[in-house]
Amino acid sequence: MQVLIGIAGKDFVLTAADTTTARSIVVMKHGEDKSRLLNKHNLLLYTGEPGDTVQFAEYIQCNIKLYEIRNGLELGTSACASFVRKQMAESLRSRGPYNVNYLIAGASKKGEPELYWGDYLAASQKMPFAAQGYAAYFVMSTMDRYWRPDLSLEEARVLLQKCLDELKTRFIGNLPEFLIKVVDKDGVRIIA
User: Which residues pair with 14 in a beta bridge?
Assistant: First the structure.
C-alpha cells in the first residue's frame, strides 16, 4: 500500500510519498521518508520490499556521489535515471534482483523539470506526471485531466491535493501522512 506521486510543472517537480511502512495487514512504522537526495537537484523516491528499497536507494545515492567526487561533475536528471535503470537491469539478471519501483525528480540549474518513472523490471520513462503503487489506479486519471505543462507551484499543490483527496475517498488503505517535496533550480526542499 505504498504511494509515490510526481508532478512536473513549469520549472519544478512536486513529489509526494506516503510515510507509512506496512507489510501485509500490519503497519510497522509511521514517519518513514521514502526518498533519497541523489545530488542538489535530483531526488529518488522508492517503493517496494522494505530491505530492497533502502539498500538499493543507499547504493544508488553513494555511487552517484562517488561519480561526482571522481569526475568533478554533478549528474543531471537524465544521467541519474540512466544510471538507476542500468543498475536495475543488472540486478534483474542476477541471483538477487531488487524489487524496487521508483520515481526520479530533478531540475536543471536553468529550472527545466524532469520526472522519470521506473519499475523493478528496469523499465524507465520520462513523464510529465507519474504515480507508483496502488495510487496509480486512482490518481493518474485526475492528473491526466488537470495537468498542464505551465503549472505553477500553487496549481500543482492544488492538483496534488485533488489526488490525495481521491485516495482518501476511494482507496481502502489508510494513508494518513504524506511527505511532500519540491525540486527546482534552487535544490530540493520539503514543503509539507
Answer: 7, 182
Q: Are 64 and 75 in contact, with CB atoms under 8 Å apart?
A: yes
Instruction: Give me the residues paired with residue 180 across strands.
Output: 16
Residues in the chain: 192
Nearest by Cα to 42 from 11, 79, 89, 2: 79
- pLDDT(20) > 70: yes
- CA dihedral (12, 14, 15, 19) in degrees, to 10, reads 130
Instruction: Report residue 27's pLDDT band, with 50, 70 and 90 as the boundaries.
Output: confident
Q: Report residue 170: phi and psi, to 5°.
A: -105, -25
> What is the reported pLDDT for 1?
66
What is the average pLDDT score of the chain?
Answer: 92
Whether 5 and 131 have beta carbons less than 8 Å apart is answered as yes
Check whether 24 has a pLDDT greater than 90.
no
> Which cell numbers hold the place of 135?
495510487
Answer whether residue 140 shows pLDDT above 90: yes
pTM for this prediction: 0.92
User: Exposed (0-12), middle (13-18) or buried (19+): which is 139, by Cβ within 10 Å?
Assistant: buried
Helical residues (DSSP H) of the chain, grouped into ranges: 50-71, 77-92, 135-146, 153-170
